[in-house]
């Protein structure tokens, strides 16, 4: 199959950019805590608990919905929404 024909069949292309193309300054849990304080008015956030919850949520979702849900009928947006819900 030619490259041109192969490209016709591709509908979505995703990249796992974490620590490859970009990094999150101070880590994602730190950013989540900052955004919760800034946009949700949540001032009392235990960042070490948030970090622990984030790691556990990420592991759980990678087990229950590997590949950001590609084979379990959830969108990547739903996957990330679940991650945030489980983290908090």
From TrEMBL:
InterPro entries: HAD-like_hydrolase_domain, HAD-SF_hydro_IA_REG-2-like_cap. GO terms for cellular component: nucleus. Gene3D superfamilies: Haloacid dehalogenase-like hydrolase. It comes from the Eukaryota. PANTHER family: HALOACID DEHALOGENASE-LIKE HYDROLASE DOMAIN-CONTAINING PROTEIN 3, PTHR46191. This is Uncharacterized protein.
């Amino acid at each position: 199959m030619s490259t041109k024909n192969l490209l016709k069949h591709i509908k979505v292309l995703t990249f796992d950019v974490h620590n490859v193309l970009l990094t999150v300054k101070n880590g994602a849990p730190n950013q989540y805590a900052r955004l919760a304080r800034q946009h949700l008015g949540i001032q009392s956030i235990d960042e070490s608990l948030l970090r622990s919850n984030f790691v556990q949520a990420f592991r759980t979702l990678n087990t229950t919905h590997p590949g950001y849900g590609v084979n379990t009928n959830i969108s990547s947006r739903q996957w990330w929404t679940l991650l945030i819900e489980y983290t908090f």
